[in-house]
Amino acid sequence: MTETRKYWLDTMLKIVTPVLKALSEDRLKEKMPVESVSPVDERKNYTYLEGFGRVLVGIAPWLAAKKLDAEEETMRQEYAALVRKCLDVCVDPAAKDRMNFSYGSQPIVDAAFLAEGILRAPEELWQKLSELTKTRLLDAMRETRTRKPYRSNWLLFSAMIEAFLHYANATDWDPMRIDYALMKHAEWYKGDGWYGDGDPFHLDYYNSFVIQPMQWDVLNEVKHEYPEWEKLVPEAQKRLAHYATHLEHLISPEGTYPLIGRSLSYRFGAFHALAAAALNHNLEVSITPAQVRCGLTAVIKRILAFDNMTDENGWLRVGVCGHQPGMGEGYISTGSLYLCTTVFLPLGLPESDPFWSDRDAEWTMKALWRGVDRTCQKALE
To answer: Looking at the domain covering 3-368, what would its CATH class be?
Structure first.
């Protein structure tokens, strides 16, 4: 295992292990602290599914990885079994950690992340489940249908849940929820690889946190069902690749990035779309996998330089640069923070992939601010 890959893997596992270990033991609600500017008792209704769903969406590609060396493969198998145990617990009506899928609006969001995670590693996280757990999971996903999502990126959460039901061959999957989400986002496209979050344009990272990766995963599952969905795929792919280029350009020579907009406590989850584009070999030709690897490594190290990012037991704390409680909006709690794991998606690529095997390369801003001559980026037509 290369030194950089080992650093990524060790970092990811250090972040996710407290969540997965506690949930597998049916002790997540007992052990996980809940930090929020909102009343803690209210956020306790949601924070546990938030944490598990977001861990899953980040770790899943690694759980699906092939052609790993013996040491890493052993770890992968251990964590895949641990996650399956967590999936058993989170929908077991007799478990203390049975999660909330039916109260409030927030479960629409985090059931979708849970579904997306399963679809990123279906062989490990669906096919190997017991029939009882499969049935319970499907029923839990259906529980979210009693609430209406907001006319924003939330439409994709409902669509993701239906895409999961489609994958599971549920006869009641609803194409309308998917179609509405896809067509509204087509209307909300603003140009140059950016979508609005609803009608307005927001200068934040929601194209990366949610919109572009989730739209891609929904389309990847259901595109063959209707010709009009399949026609969306080339443009969605091109826009994701171009937006990923914007994200790569936002990494400064020092590994920092602009702290703008909502939900910054997701930390390096701001690079979800760039990580997804790298995982799916969907980078623009001007961006090499090695420069993405080096740029993202710089970001991860820059944020982890703040040793108060976690508490003494390894649980994430609100903030970007260490513990900054003021960075937490009312909908943010401890579980929310685990969307940071999406930066680690390229661990789903084997060590032989160019992302890991090519020699180090400077990312765009590091090269430009050193005086290297490069071609200017062009807007997407």
So the answer is: mainly alpha
